[in-house]
Amino acid sequence: MPIRVVELFAGVGGFRIGLEGYPKSKNAPYKVVWSNQWEPSTKTQHANMVYTERWGTKNHCGKDISTVDTKNIPEHDLLVGGFPCQDYSVATTLKRSDGLIGKKGVLWWQIHRIIEAKKPKYLLLENVDRLLKSPASQRGRDFAIMLSSLNEKGYAVEWKIINAAEYGMPQRRRRIFIVAYHKSTYIYKRLKKLNNKEDWLLSEGVMAKSFSSTKKDNVLVKGIIDKDLATVSSTFNKDGKLSPFQNAGVMIDGAYLTHKYAPKYSGEYINLGQILIPENEVPSEFYIDADSIDKWVYLKGAKKEERINKAQGFKYNYSEGSMIFPDALDKASRTIITGEGGVSASRFKHVVKPNGKMRRLTPKELERLNMFPDNHTKLEGISDTKRAFFMGNALVVGLIEKIGRVLAEEIKN
After folding, report:
1. Average pLDDT in the chain
2. Exposure winner among 69, 109, 340, 403, fewest CB in 10 A?
3. What whole-number distance in Å separates Cα of residue 25 and Cα of residue 18?
4. Model confidence over 375-387: pLDDT tens digits?
5. From residue 388, how far is each of 317, 354, 385, 399 by CA, in Å?
6. What pTM value is reported for the model?
7. pLDDT tens-digit map of 25-82
8. Is 385 in contact with 341 (CB distance < 8 Å)?
């Protein structure tokens, strides 16, 4: 029987491709039984158009998740999603028995609502790495709220920040991956019995088996997450300047331990040059014309200049370092951002020069940097700029493949 998956904040389906394959593998241990994608900031739901083109509309919901009754979400074993990093603080106390809720519009509380109703055995979530140190005024509070709420629902949690390039993949993209296990599962019970919980981070856990690592120093940070969400929200690390959460950690029964790790990888590495399409397939609009080269050179270069604040009129000194220009082909690429598309010059867009002529990356090449199938986002009505935006929001599919294989094996055992 396959592991039943619900995919939230699905985008163009990175989690689904990583777990099922595309087209779906006959031997895939996972089956997506329901999915949801809705972009609040746009009238035309472009990502949803791509998703339904690839997988159809059956068992898919293209509505705001906050309007979806959990009764309409099927039973599932694994809940997955890449949710936004927002302010997770507990906003108010309700008179009804539910007690505490978070700020309206914060999507973590939608995950919380679904977990409460459906009680999936496993969670696999992705976020930006700054989650561990947000907000600036109370470092680590948001992640502590997550841990407290998952602990209250009976889950153990492990996390690891992964830079995809450090494990051979073609993009330097750092993201936190969070895996959680309900107390009814064998994995939870195995973790609970483990005498030295740090072994989970080094060798025994799903993330350790997916991405081998060594301890970076001798520091091991331990702590207790309060069971009361309001207390965590108002007091966690109130006077601390640094977050206690390091780039790998585990929490069970409210007790967490965390350390810094260094990657341990000896396989092949994919670089930017290897994913480029043949030059005779590159549309002419992706080449940079001679008239705009100076603008690109300026934006990519080092600066130390006096500027004027347009709103308030005061002068200030601005400085920034230079960037490699054009991008190195013998290394993994820089992180794709949502503003990668479009012809205008930009400090952060990729520029390559494989045959003596500078050009931007094509949508197919951006897909390859995230390890998506070629032309996965190509669809009538979807612009190249929008396709680039999708990849700026997406995850590296190869990371999900690795975690998915290990997690399926652990569940099977």
Report:
1. 94
2. 69
3. 11
4. 999 999 999 999 9
5. 33, 20, 5, 20
6. 0.94
7. 889 999 999 999 999 888 999 999 999 999 999 999 999 999 999 999 999 999 999 9
8. yes
In a domain, 230, yes or no: yes
For the chain, report the end-to-end CA distance as a whole number of angstroms: 14
Residue 272 maps to a domain: no
Q: Are 135 and 148 members of one domain?
A: yes
289 and 159 in a common domain: no
Structure tokens at 248: 């790998």
Amino acid at 89: S
388 and 406 together in one domain: no
Q: How confident is the model at residue 93 (pLDDT cuts 50, 70, 90)?
A: very low
Is residue 129 located within the same domain as residue 212? yes
Same domain, 311 and 238: no
Closest CA to 44 of 368, 389, 308: 389
Q: Any bridge partners for residue 261, and if so which?
A: 215
Integer CA distances (angstroms), 128 to 194, 264, 299, 402, 405, in order: 29, 22, 26, 19, 22
* Residue of 338, 344, 401 whose CA lies nearest to 11: 338
For residues 380 and 401, state if they share a domain. no
For tokens 């070629």, name the residue. Answer: 374
In 3-state terms, what secondary structure has residue 188? helix
Q: Per the omega criterion (within 30 degrees of 0), is the bond before 373 cis?
A: no
**Tokens for 67?**
């309007």
User: What secondary structure does DSSP assign to 156-176, as a single string?
Assistant: EEEEEEEEGGGGT-SB--EEE
214 shares a domain with 179: yes
CATH of the domain at 290: 3.90.120
Q: Is residue 147 part of a domain?
A: yes
Distances (CA, A) of 192 to 207, 237, 395: 17, 26, 31
The answer, yes or no, to whether residue 349 has pLDDT greater than 90, is yes
- Count of domains observed in the chain: 2
Same domain, 122 and 24: yes
- The confidence score (pLDDT) of residue 89 equals 76
- Alpha helices (H) along 58-152: 108-118, 141-152
Instruction: Give the bridge partners for 126, in sequence order.
Output: 82, 177
pLDDT (tens digit per residue) in 167-223: 999 999 999 999 999 999 999 999 999 999 999 999 999 999 999 999 999 999 999
